[in-house]
Amino acid sequence: MSPIESHLKQALEADLRQVGVAGARVSVLSADVEAWSYRVETEGRSFEVGFNHRDLLWARETTAGRQKHLVSNDHAPVHASTAARARAVVLVARAVADAQFPPRDPPVI
Q: Is the pTM of this model over 0.70?
């Protein structure tokens, strides 16, 4: 794993913890200068996140029986710079957290 891949993996793990997804396991699926993707596994759920070949941010749930597209940045390509990727990790972490812990309806009073 390159230093950039390692840094982004650590950033994703930290961002997941920050948004309440503690104990997530992050593994690199693929990474090069232009694209990267990670698998994120939480308690009973799995997700894939990253940039595709066009440098578009994406996240999808891959849990058996729950495959679902979560988020993509199709309308605003994110350049493959380290800084842009690091910022995008926050968006991905929030998408994973929202899927893992969906917002609850406010209590009816």
A: no
